[in-house]
Design brief:
InterPro entries: Acyl_CoA_acyltransferase, GNAT_dom
Strand content: 25-35%
Organism: Streptomyces chrestomyceticus
CATH architecture of the largest domain: 3-Layer(aba) Sandwich
Number of domains: 2
Number of helices: 8
Pfam family, one: Acetyltransf_1
Structural class: alpha+beta
CATH class of the largest domain: Alpha Beta
CATH topology of the largest domain: Aminopeptidase
Protein name: GNAT family N-acetyltransferase
Largest sheet: 7 strands, mixed
Domain N-acetyltransferase: 15-160
Strand order of the largest sheet: 1-2-3-4-11-5-10
Bound molecules: coenzyme A
Length: 288
Amino acid sequence: MREDDLPAAERASALTFLDADRRDRRVSDPEPELRSAAAGRQWIDRMRYYLTTDPGGCLVAVEPHAGAEQVVGFAVSQNREWLWYLATYGVLPGHQRRGIGKRLLDAVLAHADGRPGIFSSSVHPGATRRYRLAGFSLHPQMRMVGTVVRSALPAVDGLREGGAEDFPWMDRLDRELRGAGHGPDHGRLLASHRLVVSGDRTRPGYVYVDGRGRAALLAAGRADTAQRLLWEALAASDGSTLVNCVTTPNEWAVDVGLAAGLAIGQEGYLAVRGMPVPAPYLADGHFL
Ligand SMILES: CC(C)(COP(=O)(O)OP(=O)(O)OC[C@H]1O[C@@H](n2cnc3c(N)ncnc32)[C@H](O)[C@@H]1OP(=O)(O)O)[C@@H](O)C(=O)NCCC(=O)NCCS
């Protein structure tokens, strides 16, 4: 993938995921819509970051079309220390089931060079088939949705606002939980999120909270620290909220969600290869 592929890759991604969302939508879900221009610009901005940070993990599949090249597929992955993650992956609907996805996945896995791997998987049958055939374990994920019952919020102490000076110990905690620090991804997350950390260095933990009060990435040394951090995020929520990427080794999060009045739903898989499911941990879909 090159910088000048980004607009075409964005359109391919928007069409691919609209088709997948229509296909995999449950009757209770709202009608899927094509990604907005603003969301498209955010997508390009994030892909540019991956391309700058680890370009070897970013690929497009192209085919000749009307005398030019058409982007028909994309696979964007990143190595961080001794860990590989897949950020996004797709093939245009009209080009699926012809082996393009296999070639893309094989190529980004070659870039992983034997590193353990992690990503959040859709339920698309082509995707789950590819992932399992590549040796990934698919762990079903829960999502907790609803409006927080304010009277259920406990008084949470021992937390403080975090900053870039916290990244060294946060990376050490990441290594214990997932085998690698987030490195530059911490800076990327801090630019658009509030960071809350445990004030007790013997019980490390942190959570990034987005503008709508959703926990985007949470890591802790112990489940009780993780629960306090999640309560802090839920306290910041306004209206309907969401806690996602919850796997069964992270039932501490289910217990907090239920106590807050949220309901359990099911959504996709956490895919891992060569490593266990991190816990106590809530992965971020973009930076894992
Ligand atoms: C996942 C994806 C990239 C695979 O691309 P692709 O070019 O179709 O992949 P391939 O043809 O190499 O392989 C897909 C495999 O799944 C099968 N498959 C594809 N679509 C299928 C479907 N709708 N139902 C059942 N099987 C399907 C293919 O037959 C093939 O199996 P085979 O290799 O044993 O023949 C593509 O399906 C896609 O873009 N899906 C929607 C977006 C998505 O969910 N991306 C993953 C996000 S985590």
